Q: What sequence folds into this?
């Protein structure tokens, strides 16, 4: 009886916990069955490489000897004889820890579950637990969520940090809160700083609406909340400054953006030098429109209708300014990423992923408003026949949309990510045979015109080139000769990925 009473009192928390566990299990399934636990995108390969380095307590690895360009790792650069990825350290540190534990896929899976739980907590804090549960369930139905949560990209960590920052902020800044622990603003700022160490420009977009709220608190808020706003800003800046320490450690210059070491034009802003041909307002509009058009379907799997309940949600919260910063994170990210020269579509509009909870919460609020359900606890649900019919119609509509997504949109959306860029476990299989292992240690000269077929093999080597097989992209006889000379203790094999089980052993001249 006590257990039954406890579950009844905490039924919404139990439902949210179940949704979080489903997020973890589902993300692991996507990682294993769709992505096969492998990096596919150039970004993922760079993260994987850097995570290996960080997991050994290092920031860099030695530049490969012989012909470094033949040992290409996408978005990994060489400076002063050292090699490192251009991406900030936040996600490689987390992924590296998971690697040390032997389960790299668990990192994003656990972060996905945490993001679902935090979404629930935001809904429960701002409105009522039922809103949070609905937002959590909507997250679970999102193709956008699954495509990213099963990947090796940094976005799931960014989403968890973004949602945690929003929740912590509201824990002390909510108008109903009159007292709070002194550590809470410090923790809030630290989480935002951690986001800056993971995705710096995203942190700017997430912080923007809360900064407006913070300025209002400095102007009109009580003394305790004015101090809290300043504490958040200070602690966030302190943690974020470590990004410049990292830049100094790997490049020798705290102001050198490693992105520009791979592409000099890879930076935020407008005009010449920003983007391949110079970033313009017109290009910003085209990129933004294209990304949002992808999101019209990808966010909830409702073809071009994922926005359907958003206007109703906006109307429902029009007189609730305390909720606006949380709901404004997504549009804020859209705004700040207009200043970046490239858009995103393959993994959905992923530059906006850290604002996903804005969309799920606002959609949940819109559904509640349309169904006539109260958004505040303490208000009774209407029991009239008309109200029940209204609720039934809305539930039926949402149910049809979800079923249509699960049956017709989500499966093919995940299927299109399988074997992305031709990278799959099948590519690795030839090197795991006893015949191939008998040739080790070996340098494999991969003869291909495309980085994907070469990149598909890179998970079999480590950054220090000490694994049984190491792989070099064959760039011609002179470069290949330099590689052979740099590794005299290894056999040299020519390998054509189009003839995967044939290894041509090069016998050095006497």
A:
């Amino acid at each position: 009886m006590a257990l039954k009473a406890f579950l009844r009192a905490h039924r919404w928390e139990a439902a949210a916990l179940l949704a979080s566990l489903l997020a973890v299990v589902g993300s692991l399934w996507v990682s294993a069955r769709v992505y096969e636990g492998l990096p596919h995108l150039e970004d993922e390969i760079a993260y994987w490489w850097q995570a290996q380095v960080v997991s050994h307590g290092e920031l860099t690895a030695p530049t490969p000897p012989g012909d470094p360009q033949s040992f290409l790792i996408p978005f990994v650069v060489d400076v002063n004889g050292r090699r490192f990825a251009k991406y900030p350290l936040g996600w490689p540190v987390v992924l590296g820890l998971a690697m040390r534990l032997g389960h790299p896929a668990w990192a994003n899976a656990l972060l996905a579950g945490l993001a679902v739980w935090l979404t629930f907590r935001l809904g429960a804090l701002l409105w009522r637990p039922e809103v949070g549960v609905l937002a959590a369930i909507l997250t679970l139905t999102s193709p956008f969520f699954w495509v990213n949560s099963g990947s090796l990209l940094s976005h799931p960590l960014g989403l968890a940090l973004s949602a945690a920052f929003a929740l912590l902020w509201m824990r002390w800044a909510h108008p109903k809160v009159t007292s709070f622990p002194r550590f809470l603003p410090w923790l809030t700022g630290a989480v935002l700083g951690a986001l800056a160490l993971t995705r710096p420009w995203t942190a700017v977009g997430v912080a923007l609406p809360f900064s407006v709220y913070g300025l209002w608190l400095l102007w009109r808020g009580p003394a305790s909340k004015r101090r809290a706003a300043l504490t958040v800003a200070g602690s966030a800046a302190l943690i974020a400054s470590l990004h410049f320490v990292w830049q100094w450690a790997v490049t020798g210059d705290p102001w050198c953006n490693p992105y520009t070491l791979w592409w000099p034009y890879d930076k935020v802003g407008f005009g010449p030098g920003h983007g391949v041909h110079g970033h313009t307002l017109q290009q910003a509009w085209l990129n933004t429109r294209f990304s949002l058009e992808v999101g019209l379907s990808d966010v909830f799997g409702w073809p071009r209708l994922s926005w359907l309940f958003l206007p109703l949600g906006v109307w429902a919260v029009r007189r609730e300014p305390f909720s606006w910063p949380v709901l404004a994170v997504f549009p804020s990210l859209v705004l700040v990423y207009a200043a970046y020269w490239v858009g995103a579509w393959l993994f959905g509009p992923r530059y906006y992923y850290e604002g996903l909870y804005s969309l799920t919460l606002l959609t949940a609020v819109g559904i509640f408003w349309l169904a006539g359900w109260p958004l505040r606890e303490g208000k009774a649900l209407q029991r009239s026949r008309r109200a029940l019919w209204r609720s039934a119609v809305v539930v039926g509509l949402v149910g049809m949309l979800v079923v249509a997504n699960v049956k017709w949109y989500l499966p093919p959306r995940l299927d299109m990510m399988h074997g992305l860029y031709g990278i799959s476990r099948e590519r690795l299989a030839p090197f795991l045979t006893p015949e191939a292992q008998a040739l080790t240690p070996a340098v494999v000269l991969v003869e291909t015109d495309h980085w994907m077929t070469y990149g598909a093999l890179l998970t079999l080597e480590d950054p220090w080139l000490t694994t049984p097989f190491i792989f070099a992209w064959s760039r011609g006889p002179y470069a290949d000769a330099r590689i052979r000379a740099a590794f005299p203790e290894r056999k040299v094999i020519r390998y054509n990925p189009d003839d995967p089980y044939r290894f041509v052993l090069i016998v050095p001249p006497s």
Summary: Residues 425-506 form one domain. The chain has two domains: 2-37+104-415, 425-506. The chain has a mean pLDDT of 95.
